[in-house]
Specification:
Blueprint (H helix, E strand, L loop, with lengths): L1 E5 L6 H10 L3 E6 L2 H9 L10 H12 L3 E5 L6 H11 L3 E4 L6 H4 L3 H24 L5 E7 L16 E7 L5 E7 L7 H20 L2 E7 L1 E3 L25 H10 L4 E4 L5 E6 H12 L10 E5 L2 E4 H12 L3 E4 L16 H6 L8 H13 L17 H8 L6 H4 L2
Parallel strand pairs: 1-2, 1-4, 2-3, 4-5, 5-8, 8-12, 9-11, 10-14
Antiparallel strand pairs: 6-7, 11-13
Bound molecules: nicotinamide-adenine-dinucleotide and sulfoquinovose-uridine-C1,5'-diphosphate.
Length: 406
């Protein structure tokens, strides 16, 4: 297949590009490199030394003979070029990673909120409108998030996108219907993914676009089978308080002898998936497209759930790291249970990689190797969800717990 990977220079996008290229597909990376610019804005860098996208593509060609095509394009701002590109290249499938994906970044300031909404919503809507205009029958696979559901449960597993409900009619009869599972985003970033869902619903129903939305949990790990093949194929690894995600952060904190930064009691339960499984799920989703006229196909792309304090305890046991409980800069429940249905990927053949000492150690080893690249001042999460929280937690004149741990 000819596959367009929008956001193919990113943390999940790059290993996906390599995985699909290895399977023999013709890959076109479309990216505006905004993530690299955001590193510059924040004054941080990936823990791992990433080469330019052009250099990465050159190494892959040298190693495998397969050409990766790179196109510098902002899909949120350059609608006409996107439409022209789709019409000219006519991909069979499009994988859409190209959004601002960090919840803390989306909450730094009003400017960051506006950027995240403008970028993410316009990116998704431009893509859908351009696919219709170009008369493209490509299968669109979007990377969404488990966070569209919120993280609470009434005890039943969170279903894969849709919920059967029963309503009472005026005469007293009861009638069943199927609805999108109610959204409950916990950040401006997660809110944009909730808005994406409605855009997909409309274009599938109105224009018969074939769309799969992957509600993914937190991705951990850094290597895949392909990124291991050459030092210059190494993946991005975010450790900072805005872009680093919790388990990868704990592993790097352990490697640099920094206390593991648990927010609040650490009773938040979240869904996780290893990077290797993430790229495999995308392959599986591509193999099972919906038909034109079908509702949006929604998968829960996760393999296990964990409580944050349990993860910290596991990493501490493995590495001897110290754990610290910090005031939480986010507005979120301190404790929650989470049960998730992921039967569809299991039925398609996913064999989950679960948290295992070997894989955790591999990340710590990578982190130790590049520890000299870490700026310890950038480790704490200081993006506060509200002004009140900022006053209590981040701007605490007594010298906040957030700063005192380093
Ligand atoms: P990332 O920030 O590393 O990669 C996103 C890529 O998209 C970057 O290379 C960026 O330059 C590009 N991009 C952003 N806006 C663009 C635009 N307007 N035009 C063109 N390119 C643009 O993120 P990631 O961790 O690889 O995540 C990829 C997707 O998966 C995101 O949509 C994210 O919401 C979703 N996701 C990620 C995780 C995770 O833990 N990393 C978990 C669940 C879902
Ligand atoms: N947390 C800590 N300590 C830290 C960092 C985070 O306790 O040092 C806590 C947070 O307060 C939160 C949980 O860990 O309760 C998860 O935080 P995270 O930064 O790992 O994940 P999140 O902000 O939800 O976002 C990440 C990705 C996002 C994706 C989402 C999937 O950045 O792109 O959509 O995971 S999910 O969480 O399932 O919605």
């Amino acid at each position: 297949m000819r596959i367009a990977v929008l956001g193919g220079d990113g943390f999940v996008g790059w290993p996906t590009v390599l995985h699909l290229s290895q399977l023999g597909h013709e890959i076109h990376i479309v990216d505006n490199l905004s993530r690299r610019w955001i590193d510059t804005e924040l004054g941080v860098q990936s823990l791992t030394p990433m080469d330019s996208i052009q250099e990465r593509c050159r190494i892959w060609k040298q190693l495998t003979g397969a050409k990766l095509h790179f196109h510098l394009l902002d899909i949120a701002q350059d609608y006409e070029r996107l439409k022209g590109w789709l019409a000219a290249h006519r991909p069979d499938a499009i994988i859409h990673f190209a959004e601002q994906r960090a919840a803390p970044y989306s909450m730094i300031s009003d400017r960051h909120k506006v950027y995240t909404v403008n970028n993410n919503v316009a990116a998704t809507h431009n893509l859908l409108a351009a696919m219709v205009e170009a008369g493209l029958d490509a299968h669109l696979v979007h990377l969404g998030t488990m966070g569209v559901y919120g993280y609470s449960t009434i005890g039943a597993p969170i279903p894969e996108g849709y919920l059967d409900v029963e309503v009472t009619l005026p005469g007293g009869d009861r009638k069943g219907m199927e609805i999108l599972y109610p959204t409950r985003p916990g950040s401006v970033y997660h809110m944009t993914k909730s808005l994406d869902q409605i855009l997909f619903q409309f274009y599938a129903q109105n224009d018969g676009l074939r769309i799969t939305d992957l509600h993914q949990g937190i991705v951990w790990g850094t290597h895949t089978d392909q990124t291991r093949r050459h030092e210059q194929l190494i993946n991005r690894f975010d450790y900072d308080g805005d872009y680093g995600t919790v388990l990868n952060r704990f592993l790097i904190q352990a490697a640099i002898d920094y206390p593991l930064t648990v927010h609040g009691s650490g009773g938040q339960t979240r869904a996780f998936i290893h990077l290797q499984d993430s790229v495999r799920c995308i392959e599986l989703a591509l193999s099972d497209p919906p038909a034109a006229g079908d509702r949006v196909k929604i998968f829960n792309q996760m393999t296990e759930t964990h409580r944050i304090r349990d993860l910290a305890a596991m990493v501490a046991r493995l590495t001897g790291a110290r754990v610290v409980n910090l005031p939480n800069p986010r507005k979120e429940a301190d404790e929650n249970a989470l049960v998730v249905d992921n039967a569809q990927f299991l039925a398609l053949g996913l064999e989950p990689t679960t948290l295992a000492d070997g894989l955790l150690t591999e990340v710590v080893d990578v982190a130790r190797r590049y520890a000299h690249r870490v700026d310890r001042k950038r480790v704490p999460c200081v993006s506060a969800w509200t002004r009140d929280i900022a006053r209590r937690v981040v701007d605490d004149p007594e010298g906040s717990a957030l700063r005192s741990v380093s």
